[in-house]
Structure formats: structure tokens, C-alpha cells
Amino acid sequence: MHIAEPKVENSGIPQGVFVKRHRVPIDGAANKNACIGLNELYIGAELKIYGRVFRLVDADPATRYFYEEQGHTLAAKEDYPLDPFVLKQTAKPKVFNKQMHPMKLFMEALKGKPMSQIESTTKFLKNDGKVLRFYCTWDDSNIFGEKRPYVCIRRSSSGGVVLLHSLPALSPDSMLY
Question: Where exactly are the structural domains of the chain?
Fold first, then answer.
């Protein structure tokens, strides 16, 4: 038996030939001289060899023909297991839409680079002039407390909030201002 693993550069894991050509003993067998043979090698078998577990998922046409001549039939090939590390490396990188520092944005604008925050500008222009208006009161809880009316305005374009003291027309308080 011979087991070799393809080498990957800079992986940090020992790779290459795992088992050179020799008879591999069956791990945990009662008979110490028992070795892996044709009965242990089939599609879907899990072999524990020197502390590592290997799963057989496919065989080449010559091996299938040899097994048929010996009177054994091999199962259909299985899919290779998915390696989470390889999936992560081959996955499309995510875009995080980070905010650019205002100074860098200014310097990029000086160099003539188009504005990178087109979405926020589009939102600003689309919602310019639109406001949300709420009427509210402040209950002043001092000794001579009173309820004071306010108008809360939120601008949809910038997200800014303004609180306006709302006084009825011709009230004594309105004469002070």
C-alpha cells in the first residue's frame, strides 16, 4: 500500500508520502500479523492507519476491473468531503462598506477621484425637503412647573433632529422673545 498527499505550498502541515509501499497492519486487530487486504478496501470504508482515519471515496477503472475479476463489486463513487478551509479560501470576499476617514475623503477629492459615497448623496438628494414632524410636551417638574409644548422635526435628508419651543400666538411668554 502507498498513500501520498499532494503538497500545498506554505500550508504549515507536513505533506507528501504518508505510507510507503509496505504491508499496513490493521489497527486494533486481535491478530498482530493481520494486514489490510482486499476485504478492508472498498468504497465507503474508513481505514485507521497509524493514527489517521482515511475514507475511501472512489477507485480508478483498473482497480474496479481488478475487483470484478476477483468477484467483488465496488459501490458507486462518493463525493469528496468539503474542506471548510478550502471553502473559505475560494469563497467570494465580502464587502464591508467601511466609512472612509473625512481627511482621506478630502485628499481623494483633491486628486480628482470620484466621490465614493454616492449612496449617501443620492439619499440626501432624494429626501431633501422631506421632514417628519412630531408634537410633544416637556413636563417641567420644578415647584412652579408647567407643561411646555415643543415641535420635534426630523429631516429625512440629513437625519438631523430639531426641537422648537412652540408658543401659542399672543401668549404672555411669546412677548418676551
Answer: 1-80, 131-176
With a CB cutoff of 8 Å and minimum separation 6, the contacts of 52 are 18
Residue located via cell numbers 408658543: 167
DSSP structure class, residue 174: G
What kind of fold does domain 1-80 have according to CATH? PH-domain like (2.30.29)
Rounded distance between C-alpha atoms, residue 135 and residue 150, angstroms: 6
Using one digit for the tens of pLDDT, what is the confidence trace for 18-32?
A: 888 888 888 877 787
First to last CA, the chain: 98
Of 5-14, 36-45, 61-70, 110-119, the poorest mean pLDDT is in 110-119
- Could you report the per-residue pLDDT of 49-90, keeping only the tens digit for each? 888 888 899 999 999 999 999 898 899 999 888 878 778 877
